[in-house]
Amino acid sequence: LYIILEDLTAGSTHPNIMGVKMGTKLCESQAPPHKLRLSLEKALSTTSGQFGARVDGFRIYDPLTGTSAV
Q1: CB–CB of 59/69 below 8 Å?
Q2: pLDDT tens per residue, range 21-50
């Protein structure tokens, strides 16, 4: 099953965006062993393993400088 997402920033000139990973499963169970190991390590070293969510990244527009910052 797949979820199709709509681009909610379309038409925005300076959107503020944030990427959030939800869930404790970071890759599919049929992935190669090395990918499963890396995913487990990432889950254990971030809030994904304990809380099932983590902020993956964000971009904020600063109107004073006219730039986007990470």
Answers
A1: yes
A2: 888 888 888 999 999 999 889 888 999 988
Q: Using the Cα atoms of residue 46, residue 47, residue 49 and residue 54 in order, give the sign of their dihedral.
A: negative
What's the pTM? Answer: 0.59
* CA separation, residue 63 to residues 1, 15, 40, 47 (Å): 40, 11, 39, 31
Residue 45: how many other CB atoms lie within 10 Å: 9
Residue type at 59?
R
Judge residue 42's burial from the number of C-beta atoms within 10 Å of its C-beta, 0-12 exposed, 13-18 middle, 19 or more buried.
middle
pLDDT given at position 16: 93
